[in-house]
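In this section we walk through a basic example: taking a raw amino acid sequence and producing a predicted 3D structure, encoded as discrete structure tokens. The instruction is simple. Fold the sequence below.
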Amino acid sequence: EVQLVESGGGLVQPGGSLRLSCAASGFILAMYDMNWVRQAPGKGPEWVSRIDGDGGNKFYSDSVKGRFTISRDPAKNTLYLQMDDLRPEDTAVYYCQNAGGARGQGTQVTVSK
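The resulting token sequence is shown next.
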């Protein structure tokens, strides 16, 4: 059974940092494209970042490019999202999602003074 469990969210001031984690089970995370997606209150889902299973190429939305970094640890079967220079508009529930569309319960990120 595929399972994804996100963690690491919280309340942070503008300019701060957080590192999100996504622990995977039921499949080998490094073999598949993995995405981070976020959803702000009252808005639809927004794709944030992807790391390719083949080659590990990384991609970012324009809104987070230069501030967020996606990575993975095959030994821990875990996906990460390092978020720096956070802004209030980054406030959302963040989900990791595999290529098949499965995602976890999400982790809340709130950026506020």
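Looking at the output, two observations stand out. The mean pLDDT is 96. The radius of gyration is 13 Å. In the next section we compare this with other chains.
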